[in-house]
Amino acid sequence: MTGTLILVRHGESEWNLKNLFTGWRNPALTEKGVGEARETGRKLKAAGIVPDRFYTSGLRRAQHTLDLILEEMGIENVTIVRNTALNERDYGDLSGLNKDDARAKWGEEQVLIWRRSYDVPPPGGESLEMTAQRTLPYYETEIRPHVAAGETVLVAAHGNSLRALVMAIEGLTPEQILKREIATGEPIVYRLKADGALDERVGV
Ligand SMILES: O=C(O)[C@@H](CO)OP(=O)(O)O
C-alpha cells in the first residue's frame, strides 16, 4: 500500500520580505504570502488530493498557511496537530538581523556557512543537522505511520524543517540538500511505500 505525503512551505512572511533572519521568531504572512498559500490550496484541490491528516509547526506563518490551504480546499472541522518539532531552524543570535547587514559584518562566506552548511550552527542557533535531529524523530513516530497506513498527510512547515524531511525521503547527501531551495507556494507531493521509501514524486 502507498500513502501520500504533502509538504508545503509557508507563504512569504513579513520577515522574508524585509530580508531578516527569522528562525523561531513569529512574523505574519504578507499579502503575497496569503496569496501563495491560497494558490497551494487551489493546486492541491485541482489535483484531486484529499488529505486525511494535518500537521504544522508552532509558528503562525505555517499555521496560517495551513488554514488558508484548508479554506481553499473547502475542508472544515478537522484536527490540526501543531508541534515545535516542525519549526524553522533556530537562527539563534542572527534572528531578527538583516541578511545583507550580516554579510557586511561577517562576510559573504561566513554567512553562507551559517545559512547553508549542514553541520555548522549559527551562533546560539541550530544547524540543519540539529534541525533534522528533532524533525525526523517526530516525522518517524507521528507522521510516517499514517502515511504507511495509506493515508494522505499534509504538513505545512518551513524551509529548513522541510529540507530535513526531503533529505531523508529522497536519500540526498548534505551537499545535495543544501542546494535545494524549498519554494513558497509549491507543494511537494510524495507517494511513499509502507516502509517509508519513496515510490514517486507526483507533480501538481
Ligand atoms: O530566515 C529564516 O528563518 C530562513 C527561511 O526564510 O532563512 P534561510 O533562507 O537563511 O534558511
From TrEMBL:
PROSITE patterns: PG_MUTASE. Pathway: Carbohydrate degradation; glycolysis; pyruvate from D-glyceraldehyde 3-phosphate: step 3/5. Substrate binds at residues 9-16, 22-23, 61, 88-91, 99, 115-116, 159-160. Gene3D superfamilies: Phosphoglycerate mutase-like. The record marks H158 as: Transition state stabilizer. GO terms for molecular function: phosphoglycerate mutase activity. Keywords: Gluconeogenesis, Glycolysis, Isomerase. InterPro entries: His_Pase_superF_clade-1, His_PPase_superfam, PG/BPGM_mutase_AS, Phosphogly_mut1. It catalyses: (2R)-2-phosphoglycerate = (2R)-3-phosphoglycerate. The active site is at H10 (tele-phosphohistidine intermediate), E88 (proton donor/acceptor). GO terms for biological process: gluconeogenesis; glycolytic process. It holds the Pfam family His_Phos_1. It is an enzyme of class 5 (isomerase). Its EC number is 5.4.2.11. PANTHER family: PHOSPHOGLYCERATE MUTASE. Catalyzes the interconversion of 2-phosphoglycerate and 3-phosphoglycerate. Belongs to the phosphoglycerate mutase family. BPG-dependent PGAM subfamily. Homodimer. This is 2,3-bisphosphoglycerate-dependent phosphoglycerate mutase. It comes from Arsenicitalea aurantiaca. The lineage of its organism: Bacteria, Pseudomonadati, Pseudomonadota, Alphaproteobacteria, Hyphomicrobiales.
